[in-house]
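Margin note from the TA: students keep mixing up input and output lines. Inputs are the sequences; the output is the structure of the whole complex. Example:
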Amino acid sequence: MDALEQTVKQVIQRLNLLRQGERVVVAVSGGPDSLALLHILHTLRTHWDLTLIVAHLDHALRPTSREDAAFVGRIAAQLGLFCVRERQDVRAYAKAHRLSLEEAAREVRYQFLAQVARATQATVIATGHTADDQAETVLMHFLRGAGLSGLKGMLARSRLVLPPREPDTPAEPPVDLVRPLLFTPRRDIEAYLERKGLHPVQDETNFDTAFHRNRLRHELLPLLEREYQPQLRTRLARTAETLAVDWDFIQQAVNTAWEQLAQIHPGSITFPRDAFLALHPALQRRLVRRALFTLRPLLRDVAWDHITNALFIATHGETGAQATLPGHLMLRREYDQIRIESDPVVQEWPQLSEPMTPPLDTNATFTIGDWTLTLRTIPREALDVSPFENTDRWQAFLDANRIHFPVRLRTRQKGDRFHPLGMPGDVNLADFLTAQKVPQAVRDALPLLVDANDRILWVAGVRISADAAVQETTTHILHLMFQKR
Amino acid sequence: MDALEQTVKQVIQRLNLLRQGERVVVAVSGGPDSLALLHILHTLRTHWDLTLIVAHLDHALRPTSREDAAFVGRIAAQLGLFCVRERQDVRAYAKAHRLSLEEAAREVRYQFLAQVARATQATVIATGHTADDQAETVLMHFLRGAGLSGLKGMLARSRLVLPPREPDTPAEPPVDLVRPLLFTPRRDIEAYLERKGLHPVQDETNFDTAFHRNRLRHELLPLLEREYQPQLRTRLARTAETLAVDWDFIQQAVNTAWEQLAQIHPGSITFPRDAFLALHPALQRRLVRRALFTLRPLLRDVAWDHITNALFIATHGETGAQATLPGHLMLRREYDQIRIESDPVVQEWPQLSEPMTPPLDTNATFTIGDWTLTLRTIPREALDVSPFENTDRWQAFLDANRIHFPVRLRTRQKGDRFHPLGMPGDVNLADFLTAQKVPQAVRDALPLLVDANDRILWVAGVRISADAAVQETTTHILHLMFQKR
């Protein structure tokens, strides 16, 4: 057995990464790391009686990506392994969900891998992340000013939990993620490929490291190793390893505290106040974070100041004192409880949890948080009210003859313009919302109805567009209605 | 009240840094940070009824250091404060204790500050470390590959515990250390001095930051802020703040586990095995570290691999299995205990805990770990044994007529040479110890008797020098004897 195969075998044993008879999806880009991983696991498969499934996602980001997919197919065939390949337009996905290319690629990739795992009844996905990737990850988090959970880097075995992409759909059942090469330097991988006569393609994942991460890899890390710490990559991988142990210890304490104290109600989470305040601040901070992510699974980033301020109110505030939190949430200090719930102002407005919904079926009802939206297209003569005399801000009557279907809902974007009914022409949407005294807290997630050309037809709860207003000549009406559940 | 004074007051209140009526030693180099600290605390003193004592250590490292001391004296006099100044030759101290200049300066400075605190009945020492110092500290630890305790940086209030400088003397009673400017960026200090018309001297502490830290401050941090993260200093100070909370949480758990499980015996520490193995690895690792530092208070650095290997033996080893640890210690897996104790090989040899002892009184007995060393100078005719027929390796009879007194004990240094009795001339000491089969583990701390010119007279337990061997003409004998207690 090759020396690296032996080393990886020991890592898998020591950290209990794979179990007897497990079905493993191996993520193979065709680049050096994943190619080595596949060959190593193939060599070791009999030891644990593993069944390997090769999965390759073509991100459609480079001209040669189809060739890479073909290459991975051939490798899998040579090894006699089942291979699932898929092509997805990551650029379009990034645009639709307003993500960076790197974020979009990661989301699409892990969704694909999780799908393959479920379809093949695999319980674990193996990726080729190396000690060098780990060092880069730790350095990246360090420069961002991350805390323990960032500085611990990637874990050798962790749970892959994908947030639901559509609101109100349950999260998919979890799959585990293992990284058997996490303690192996990239140069050892290269030497292994050389010894085995294996020729990888250029690693497609390089694109997703994009500008920032590529600069860390190719400029900053070499500079730091040359000038300050020759062993930096090794040291950072080790830092990650020790911090992961500390993180796990704290996480276990948080889990225990959560199970003992958190009471989950519809739309809010409470903690008994005395017991909460008796906890160490390291746990208090994490319980508040977990409450936020439980109430708002799609929340991306929680600022440090928000939590600090909320904890100050929880500790020192009078009964009734409250602190705003991200995700339109707030913490309220009640007599004998700490409550985290929706900001009441926000409850008065429907809010989109995603920047853009799929095209709307125009004879259907949709759920948007605590609200429903009903759309129907009807002949004008079937209408039993006058479309000109609507006084309900949560209803709109639009001229279906002039609308380019399909319509969608989206949130506002920088530079949005809009022609409000009753005004002579286009205005800046941001200025308009201010003039209409729409609460600051709800503007970012306020639903905007747009047509197929992304023109704004209706600013929900505020005003319809003059371009879609019903006219004398209108024969068909698009009727929309938001209702609080 | 000035804005910065107000900010610092809030920091002191929020973190409970100073208590009502406390006596505070303010460490003042005369540089910007400490000068600002002194003025701010002087303004705030009535709020907590503080008594301030100014302490200045002249490290004798720069030509202008006497002027700085005079400057600090004048400032203290202007404010009507008691001022203690002392001059110490840090370079000589560094050489005597084989420390880097930075380490030596820190040791000498904190010893001085602790002395002043005890002499003036102060319970706390205030230093002028800023958020910039904190960022540099965190960055420095990051590049070294530190874990949580390094990455947390400096604490706003911590206990100052000085290790005893002489073996077997008890550690001094602890004093607290506070850093009220730890969240204040250096530029805010500069603006404050400007507003107040205060003119500091160039900060003397810059020397002790020496080459490495100065490069971090003047080259690396600016580069990282320019190219990668404009807010890096702020981010790192915040990282330190959150990690300090996590560190404190783990520390409390370690304290509890230590009190419950650690049994301290003469020369060893045991843990009940089942209870120890039931602990989270984050605690196991720290209990082993604490055992090491309890048995060896002067230990400097404990390698990660040592602890990992020891924990592996503790967890998976058979009864009787053992792992070496630094400080000539070992961990042994006993039937129902984990024991940490001196390596038995090492117990057979006296070991110096310091690189160099003070000059030895030649008619006295000294304690060296578990051993005593007795010296006496006697006329040859008073000797009741023949100096030529000594067969006890732990005794030496030397020609006092040829020795340049005073003599000392020290440990070996790179390049040491020595003329062993019975050999034609000088040999390399390292080669000689190997040839004589002195166990590797004891060589670094083996006592060497040297004369006033640092010439080796006796390699304890191995051989005397031909240059000090008793001759026919010898009239006075220096007799030395090591005895295991």
